[in-house]
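Thread title: Can someone regenerate the structure for this chain?

I was given the following input by a collaborator and told the matching structure tokens would be attached. They weren't. Posting the sequence so someone can regenerate them.
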Amino acid sequence: MMCRKSLIFFLVLLLASFSLWAFPGRLTGSQAEAPIDTLDPEVLPEGQRTGSGIQETIISPEPSAYSLAQEKAEQGKRLTASEVEAVLAELEAAQRDYAALRDSSEAKDEALADLAQENARLRDEAGSKAYLMLDGIVGFNESVPEFGAGITVGARIGSDLMLEAGADYMIGGVDGVREFSLDNFQFRLGLGWMF
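Best answer:
Regenerated them for you:
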């Protein structure tokens, strides 16, 4: 029975060690040995880069409760209740940190999706588009006002080049409506550049 309890305890401890070992805030041996020049403003420790999304981490010089518990377990000694509580507290802190990182990552993913949608919308706006315009025309014939109507069909090709074609028809004026005739039509073609 005692052997079974010890085996279960070591399995739980082993699982906890894998979780803490894979946690992103820890230092590897090569990083821990490298000296950091704190006077050089261009060289910042990993935990201080908050602009790129890395959270600040404080690395304490004293060993963690987990590493002390692991050393004690390797020596075959039993852990006290306070040591077990300290290891569990570290695991809970690691879970909270992981949850915070996951929430931050999800928020950044949503922001990136919104930016991608906005980028696609702006790309569509900058692309080719067709348009249609209806015109009302006022003109003068021997100082007498005349009225007409027109239609223009055009397209923006790409984001700059514009082509359009239109037709105007003078309907009549104060003195009455004109008879239908091709002489009352005007046709237009246009080429433009949008700045």
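The longest helix spans residues 81-126.
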